Amino acid sequence: MLTWPNFYSQLLNGLALGSLLALISAGLTIIYGTLGVLNLAHGALFMLGGYAGYVAYEETDSFLIAVVAGAFFVMVVGFALERGIIRYFYNRPAEDQILVTFGIGIVIVELVRAAFGNLSKTVPPPAWAAGVTPLGFMIYPTYRIAVLGIAAATLAALYIVLYRTRIGMVVRAGIEDALMVNMLGINVYRVFLLVFGIGAMAAGYAGIINAPVVSLTPDMGENILVQTFVVVVIGGVGSFSGAVVGGLLAGEILSLTSMVDPAYSEVMLFVIMTTVLVLRPQGLLGVQGRE
Amino acid sequence: MSAGFVGALSRRSWLPEAIAVIVLAVAPSVAPLVSVDSDILGRILIWGLFGFGFDLLFGFTGLLSFGQSAFFGAGGFIAAYLLTANLIGNVLVALALGTLGAAAVGVVVGLIALRRTGIYFAMITVAIAETFFFLENNPLSAWTGGENGLPGVPTPSLDLGFVAIKIGLGWSMYWFLAAIFLIGFFIARRIARSPVGHILSAIRDNPLRAAAVGHAIHAYKLTAFTIAAAYAGLAGGLLGVLQGYMPPEAFTFDTSGQLVMQTVIGGTGTLIGPTIGAAVWLFGHDFLQYGLGLGAAWRLGLGLIFVLLVCLLRRGIVGGIADLARRFGRVPAARVAFVRTAAAASLQAKRRARPETEPGLPILEARGLSKHYGGLAANSDVNFAVGVGELRGIIGPNGAGKTTFFKMLTGEVTPSQGQIFFRGSEITRKGVTEVCQIGLTKSYQINQLFPKASVRENLLIPALAECRGRFRLDLLKSIDRVPGLQADVEETLALLDLTARADVLVADLAYGEKRRLEIGLALATAPSVLLLDEPLAGMSPQERVETIRLLRNIRKGRTLVLVEHDMDAVFDLAERITVFHEGRVLAEGTPREIQGNSFVQEAYLGGVHAA
């Protein structure tokens, strides 16, 4: 139905979805930008975050602990993956990196499936964000407003870390030229480890934040991964601001198109991606020649 | 040695085809012994067909697509729809139309996805494939049955005129699939051994140089993409025929992923690898699920195997066996001693007919050429002209803009301002491939070779561009049948003094030999003007002498422009010298004039040569 309240509500849905996509994409893009590795396990890490949060919630009944534990768990998994596998692929062709992360993603999904089965799991929203909030012109689920706030705050925090701290400066320098950073006497491999952990955590954190809005299934990361790719292609690989702009854009496209006809929302996303590729192949905020 | 280069210019071997025929013929007798039925064998063949195209795309051309399900599904649903809607009665015709439809979709998708390379390409193919899944599921559900798929796909009956064969399920279906599989294999083998197959491998190993020696690499990549889509479409159609039902799962990301995993497990760049991978996958599925009682965790087992293979045995099962066979079966050829070929010096530069430039006019001219990178001017207002047959030297301190100037001349870099003329016609924005095709190319300051191939196979790539032009679809022609190709390669080998080293891999060459091969790649495009970017850099005294002799040999019938820091060589070889300084032309004249030029002495030579 095309009514104004419906439109506003979809606009807000788009913002909430978009800020989550921005968060996940920021994780993917800083990993790619710094390490040069396209992480196809990113969707699986998103899913893993949701399940880790689910377990923590079942144990403690505390949403806050679920978020912290879920994010922390995925970060540790990220550290382990970087130490155990990813770092041996820095000097191998891009195709090998893609293949190995693709395989890791499958293994994670199947491990979760083996442990939790195919039936979906749910995490309720925290008590303070349950129910609906009247916004004057319409009523809206409180938790979705919370998602928007949490994701925006996290993006802001990530921005401050990346652009206002010493370690962030090293990471950004690593995105420009990792070899040079290494030659300047900074242990760039320790930075790589950190970045992979943070990037993985961004995905896992988004997974648990998103958990009360959807139901958890082992396959849920696949669609998110595809949407994240579209976001990164639209925004430009390796660009933090590109991930934010692309994420919000993708969220609104998905949301507003589904108001007209849900069947076309993913298709419309692809149309926008193609348009960007034709008009500006390096992405909206991407730098030419950085691939 | 890498895929695609294997067996170049060697006698055609029918061994793989023969083995394929024998294995397919005995499989029905052996399979029941290990409790494998015709259905599983049929599926392996379908995935194998799917894999022929994918291996040409990924293994040969180096384009890793995660979107092949789009074409598998498109071909499958086109064929299934035509048959179930009774628009086409003949199954073979419907399969052919499905294949063509998938190829057409491949062209359109390829035009979009191939705008980028590497990880962008992988991401775009993923996104496109997902879009097809959504299209199939909803907007197109009137034709595809949406979530239900299309049931009731008929089995084929072949009317051979004198006898009509009705293919049912079971073993008759196996023979039907085996026949199509064999045809698919023969065609894929021919493509791999055709000039196009070799160019695809060159694009994988060094796209920049493949374009610079005169191949329209974008068109070739689109060709590989379309071939892969066609194979996928055929396989999709056959899946519908085998099952009597076209499942919507054909369009899912899992289909693309399974193809990638099977190909890597079996071995990329081997053509038959994906079939082996499919066999491992389908047997493994049954074995893990029922044999070991793992149930639904079978995918976990195969996922772990896949990760292990990527980490440890990247060339997969077939590649691993080939490596073992090479280690134990055949002793690598002993390094052949460096033999000087007496004929080399007397060889005349080969020439294909090209319009001659009027005498007195420059063959290559730059007018007011400038290149700015942001605020930095690499070249400003360069005017430069070379006469036919001249050997021109360009000198200047590091950072004087010599390399950028060369890149603009060959179309690798677009000038900010100014024009370039070759034989009197403007070539300013033609691009490096076109410029090479009309007879102007350069050798690189840093070697740009095809590192996984032998010397001979390296020279094949530019020679192909010279024989065949920028793009030609001779997919089924054997490389041995390209007229003049072998002679071209032998001639260049002799000229480079590398005849005795022709079958040595690039990685095993000495530095000086690599440098000569670098010049050889440019030379084999048969340029009338050859630009040489520091050909003597980093050479030992002996290598330097040999390369200077090569330069003297190749100047017959050619115009050469030489950027070099080796002053003795330049002043010895060049008839005229142009001096670059801070992006501009500082002076130009005979070596004697340049030696006496006080500006040059001050700016560059620092009085060393002043005496």
In angstroms, what is the radius of gyration of chain A? 19 Å
**Biggest interface, chains and residue tallies:** A-B, 41 and 40 residues
Q: What strand line-up does the widest sheet of chain A have?
A: 1-2
Major sheet of chain A: size, sense and barrel closure? 2 strands, antiparallel
Q: Fraction of residues of chain A in helices?
A: over 70%
Strand portion of chain B: 5-15%
Helical stretch tally of chain B: 23
Q: Which stretches of chain A are poorly predicted, pLDDT < 50 over at least 5 residues? A: none
> CATH topology of the largest domain in chain B, which one?
Rossmann fold
Strands of the biggest beta sheet of chain B: in what spatial order? Answer: 10-11-12-7-13-14
- End-to-end span of chain A in angstroms? 42 Å
Beta strands of chain B, count: 14
Number of helices of chain A: 10
In oligomeric terms, what are we looking at?
heterodimer
Shape of chain B: elongated
Structural account:
By secondary structure, chain A is mainly alpha-helical. Chain A has one domain (14-219). Chain A is built from 10 helices and 2 strands; from the N terminus they run H-H-H-H-E-E-H-H-H-H-H-H. In chain A, strand 1 and strand 2 (139-141) form a beta hairpin. Chain A is globular. Chain A starts with a helix and ends in a 12-residue tail after the last helix. Chain B has 611 residues and is of the alpha/beta class. Chain B folds into 2 domains: 36-252, no CATH class; 360-605, P-loop containing nucleotide triphosphate hydrolases (Rossmann fold), CATH 3.40.50. Helices cover 52% and strands 12% of the residues of chain B. A 6-stranded mixed sheet of chain B has the order 10-11-12-7-13-14, sandwiched between helices. Chain B has a 4-stranded antiparallel sheet with strand order 6-5-8-9, with helices on one face. In chain B, helix 11 crosses helix 12. Chain B is elongated. The chains are: A mainly alpha (291), B alpha/beta (611). Chain A binds chain B through residues 32, 38, 85, 88, 94-96, 98-100, 102-104, 106-107, 110-111, 113-114, 118, 222-223, 225-226, 229-230, 232-233, 237, 263-264, 266-267, 269-270, 273-274, 277-278, 281, 291, and chain B through 58, 62, 64, 66, 112, 115-120, 122-124, 126-128, 130-131, 134-135, 137-139, 253, 257, 260-261, 264, 296-297, 299-300, 303-304, 306-307, 310-311, 314.
